[in-house]
């Protein structure tokens, strides 16, 4: 790993963390936007404390949901330890959103006119180790005889560019909609407003992790988006996580 | 490293090789296009044997020049073991030239419409390990008290898109032209036709390695391009390598 200002130094620790390593179900939860933490060497990217703790830095509540799902469904969880402001692990290096110069209403001064060396350093320090680890874990699980199922867990902001969003839970998919279809069918008429490919869809580039790790090998997969005002307290987290766990396990029975 | 069809498998071996590890001069030669070898797992990319051994696959003679320079000037040499047809390590992942769909007059069927997973796999298997190694070696050399000097070594085809090229040796640079200036001054009136930023220049994206490893830290650097018909036999290799060694060492005395 390249050690350079703006990226990881040895004291920053690893970019990727894995929970529930001994999980047996074959479910692999992935949380690319788990953390708002900047590597100390990255400074503040020229952002205010408000911006640095907002949804542009991370998906608030996503890691908590993913952890609960990984426990209740006995799945593995891979999560990124650093903020997507430095590198968004759900985007390839060729995407402008990988090291964004702006996000929603916020300009990100520390990401303006990044040098090739800085782009390289972030790619090598954050993106590649993250997906190498996801890949390694999936290969291990498949090698041990379980059928990998990839579920990425995200949250979204209730107000985007000043506009409130009505959707509460988004079930997103790319070309393989098996698991999403089954979840959407089960969610119809239920307690939450659940929508297909909303508030984002594959045309927004948000299915990158699914494209890397599920589609090439034909593993069942889905991306879940939860409106973050629903998971701001323990009661909300508990309700949403239990709801999603039921949705996933029911859908898996029908898809498998 | 991701193991996947079209990229490296464990039996392919490492992507990067280092010669003259105990070199003491601080010179670091880099040869991104040293090899025409495809990883066995990559097949033939749909190319003819003629195309697979042509300049689109590698820089013929570049590794031999770089090896002679590294010995005569006591420098380290880092070279890529696989063809740039799979990943061109002198380009960032966001460049269309990194995994080119065509090169000069050749379409490259095996590189058409690469999936995100395949792009990721090649980046992770070939690009990142190569530049991580260059970076690690430079940091080690600097840590041991020598002053790193980065020299990338390339060759070019005498006929490009049907047009003969008159230039024999190109001395290329990006924003830091110290070493190139000194070499060009010494080459004036000499035995070879030597030109600045020819047949390519930084506007063609060819100074990526210099941008990664020399410019951010202010290390003296240059990119050398030799017309490959001049190094097709032992006599040519010997003459060009001796000429370049003199040019580099003379220039370093004036720049250092």
Automatic annotation (TrEMBL), chains A, B:
<protein>
    <submittedName>
        <fullName>N-formylglutamate amidohydrolase</fullName>
    </submittedName>
</protein>
<keyword id="KW-0378">Hydrolase</keyword>
<dbReference type="Pfam" id="PF05013">
    <property type="entry name" value="FGase"/>
</dbReference>
<dbReference type="InterPro" id="IPR011227">
    <property type="entry name" value="UCP029730"/>
</dbReference>
<dbReference type="InterPro" id="IPR007709">
    <property type="entry name" value="N-FG_amidohydro"/>
</dbReference>
<dbReference type="GO" id="GO:0016787">
    <property type="term" value="F:hydrolase activity"/>
</dbReference>
């Amino acid at each position: 790993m390249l050690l350079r200002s703006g990226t990881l130094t040895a004291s920053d620790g690893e970019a990727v963390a894995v929970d529930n390593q001994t999980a047996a179900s074959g479910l692999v939860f992935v949380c690319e936007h788990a953390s708002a933490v900047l590597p100390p060497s990255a400074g503040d990217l020229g952002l205010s404390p408000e911006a640095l703790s907002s949804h542009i830095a991370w998906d608030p509540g996503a890691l908590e949901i993913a952890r609960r799902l990984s426990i209740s469904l006995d799945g593995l969880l891979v999560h990124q330890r650093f903020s997507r402001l430095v590198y968004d692990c759900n985007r390839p290096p060729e995407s402008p959103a990988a090291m964004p110069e702006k996000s929603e209403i916020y300009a990100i001064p520390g990401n303006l006119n990044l040098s090739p060396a800085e782009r390289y350093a972030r790619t090598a320090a954050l993106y590649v180790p993250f997906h190498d680890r996801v890949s390694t874990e999936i290969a291990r699980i498949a090698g041990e005889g379980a059928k990998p199922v990839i579920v990425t867990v995200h949250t979204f902001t209730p107000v985007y560019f000043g506009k409130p969003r009505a959707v509460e839970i988004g079930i997103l998919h790319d070309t393989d909609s098996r698991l999403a279809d089954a979840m959407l069918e089960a969610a119809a008429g239920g307690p939450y407003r659940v929508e297909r490919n909303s508030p984002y869809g594959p045309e927004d580039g948000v299915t990158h992790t699914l494209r890397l790790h599920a589609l090439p090998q034909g593993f069942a997969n889905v991306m879940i988006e939860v409106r973050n005002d629903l998971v701001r307290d323990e009661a909300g987290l508990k309700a949403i996580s239990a709801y999603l766990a039921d949705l996933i396990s029911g859908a898996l029975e029908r898809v498998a």
